[in-house]
């Protein structure tokens, strides 16, 4: 579906800020908080974010790379995320972040004791809660932008 966006309006700002300002502004603030206040390492953050982008099919999200202190993940990281099960480019935390993102999006009922045992061996409860909120944000808002046809011109709105 493609929403009717008035000529001259930025599609993201219009949909998120003008069409549904009571919801969109709050959603944008949550989305921005995920990037501004995360304590997760860049590689695990990006592994989870990019796995959700792949599942959502969000074109912008797959092209975007989060930058922290002038650092971004290496070229080819997206390909490693695609191959998260077998790549030698990931440590255990990064691999688990990609796995958790995939299972959160596609099989959340299948998150069993074996998975949680592996997860809690590498992540604290605080980190798991944070990663869950990040994944939830990317799943919801990346999917929203893709479903509404906004992802070809997606930028993080600032309200």
Automatic annotation (TrEMBL):
Keywords: Oxidoreductase, Peroxidase. It comes from the Bacteria. Gene3D superfamilies: AhpD-like. Transmembrane segments: none annotated. GO terms for molecular function: peroxidase activity. Residues 28-102 form the Carboxymuconolactone decarboxylase-like domain. This is AhpD family alkylhydroperoxidase. It comes from Lentzea atacamensis.
């Amino acid at each position: 579906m493609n929403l009717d966006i008035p000529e001259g309006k930025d599609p993201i700002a219009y949909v998120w800020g003008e069409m549904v300002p009571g919801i969109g502004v709050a959603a944008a603030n949550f989305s921005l908080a995920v990037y501004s206040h995360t304590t997760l390492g860049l590689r695990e953050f990006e592994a989870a974010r990019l796995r959700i982008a792949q599942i959502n099919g969000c074109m912008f999200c797959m092209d975007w790379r989060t930058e922290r202190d002038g650092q971004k993940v290496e070229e080819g990281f997206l390909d490693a995320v695609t191959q998260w099960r077998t790549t030698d480019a990931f440590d255990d935390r990064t691999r688990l972040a990609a796995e958790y993102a995939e299972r959160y999006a596609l099989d959340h009922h299948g998150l069993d004791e074996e998975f949680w045992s592996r997860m809690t061996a590498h992540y604290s409860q605080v980190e798991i809660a944070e990663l869950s909120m990040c994944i939830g944000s990317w799943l919801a808002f990346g999917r929203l932008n893709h479903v509404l046809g906004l992802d070809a011109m997606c930028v993080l709105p600032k309200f």
